[in-house]
Amino acid sequence: MAALKDRLRQDLTTAMKARDELATSTLRMALAALQLEEVAGAAARELTDEEVLAVVRRETKKRREAADAFAGAGREESAAREQAEGALLETYLPAQLSDEELTERVRAGIAESGVTSIRDMGRAMKAVQALVAGTAEGSRVAAEVKRQLA
Asked: Which of 52, 78, 125, 127 is the most exposed place for a label (fewest CB within 10 A)?
């Protein structure tokens, strides 16, 4: 079993014992998303830690987008709940790169790919994504690649 998935289950048990409603519901949703991912496709399979991280990242992004939508609609209480759920899920993700580290990795990725114009941004993004490997949000990476190619 993936170590991260095991940690999520242990934390769910702890949250249930502590009667922490927010953590319990959030971790249950995350584990349900993992289970759906495991049974998707032709045959059921066990997820690796990288695949578990991808699902947790996707769930975190959903919470962030929902919080923005609720805030835009004037539903502050719902937005605050979504933000709290997203913050809880973020604790399971690896630390994000600082701006300086991201700039350096983007520079290295662009040099490695040999891209010189914004027209080839797709090739540059592919090389840079291999270097950042989930330690920076895609929107941050894209903005930095665009800035350096412009």
From this structure: 78
